[in-house]
Amino acid sequence: MTIRITKGQTGKNLLNQIREISGIDLAVCYQCKKCSCGCTVSAHVQSPPSELIRRLQLGAGDELLTSDLIWTCVSCETCFARCPMGIDMVSVMDALRALVIQKKAVIPEGNVPLFNNAFLKTVEIFGRTYDLALMTAYKIGTSSYMRDTDKLPIIMQKKKIALLPSLGANRKRVRRIFRKTRQNKGRLS
Predict the structure, then answer these.
(1) pLDDT single digits (tens) 18-49
(2) Smallest Cα–Cα separation from 121: which of 98, 138, 101?
(3) Can you give the pTM of this predicted structure?
């Protein structure tokens, strides 16, 4: 697939914004493509991680915010484990997601952003993920209240999800992290 990058002021600005939010310097990437080879979703997206980095290095602008990889990345950190330069692509993806929301860019079709927000909200409230609340928020968001409810008794019987949230998390600490992240507008510092 041919990728056209238009020369303009926004390209380096996007790269600088990602560096500012994530603290990751993408200039050190020398395109070995180990991140893309190990990526669990690269076969299912238009642009794998190495291509996304290269486009940023070449000055891609806000058109990059429509990449499907931003919302498809499962944050498994396989790319980070394989990267000889130690580039944390998960932080880069988080920065790109924050920029998509901040700039009100077009979010791709599907429910990945909804799931992402529901997941983060349950972590913020309960200190860790709580599957039942996550499923409920997702069902409400998609208006698919009764779809797959026939599977719930089987899941409960096999004890795959808990009825009550876990009490092992330090909820105050997690809420403080979320509050500080909001104050810093997603920056890690």
Answers:
(1) 999 999 999 999 999 999 998 999 888 888 99
(2) 138
(3) 0.65
Which three-class secondary structure state does DSSP give residue 189? coil
Q: How far apart are CA 75 and CA 47, in angstroms?
A: 16
Q: What is the DSSP letter of 176?
A: H
- For residue 77, being part of any structural domain is answered with yes
If asked whether residues 159 and 178 sit together in one domain, one would say yes
What are phi and psi for residue 124, nearest 5 degrees?
-65, -40
Q: Are 163 and 134 contained in the same domain?
A: yes
- Which residue type, as a one-letter code, is found at position 135? M
Q: Is residue 189 part of a domain?
A: no
User: CB of 79 within 8 A of CB of 26?
Assistant: no
Contact 139, 57 (CB under 8 A): no
Quick check: is 5 in a domain? no
